[in-house]
Design brief:
This protein is an alpha+beta fold and 218 residues long. The protein has six helices and eight strands, in the order ααββββαβαβαββα. It is globular and about 40 Å long. The N and C termini lie far apart (72 Å).
Length: 218
Amino acid sequence: MADGAAAKRSLGKLVVLAGVAGLAAGVGVLYMTGAFSGNRGVAAECRAAAAVAERLVPHARGEVAAFLVERSPTLVPNLTFRNIEGRELRLDTFRGRTVLLNLWATWCAPCRHEMPALDRLQATLGGPAFEVVAVSIDLGAADKPRAFYTETGIQRLAFFQDPSGRVFQELRAVGRAVGMPTTLLLDPAGCILGHLSGPAEWSSDDALRLVRTVLPGA
């Protein structure tokens, strides 16, 4: 009986180990299939973006190692938000330039931490070819996020807000927002080249190399 019980315990351990190994293999497969795999299935308007996205792969490392390059670039939803005067804008206002779209909020500690780095990134690379578009999703009045700009000395980032929070919901609906902060890198046609969930040091050498890879003259 003792030998039989021991054999059952050993068999049970083998089953558990096999299950863990199978789960690990499944995660590995999921990771590999989620990585960049060329331009199969790419929307016609974003076919050129597939080759650009491929150039990003070796630069998603270090401070931006969590950046996920799109395997099949698609158009970003034409999001709506407001500028500092409260005037409504659509994301396609920025067509013609590369955009780093960032969703943040004052109640999000990691967002608050990375905003100065985004401000420095805009100071370094911002211009006719590139802009950091940081959109606050603080609900209601703009007083709180605008006060945060003043308190932290944000000077280069233009102020944008979506007081309804719809921009986050629209990006979540297409699988590009799961938490805060959320950042997307868009080409001049509005195609998503890659995205990152969570904070990053956007003024680091790693981040600058990543962004410069897709700018004119790179």
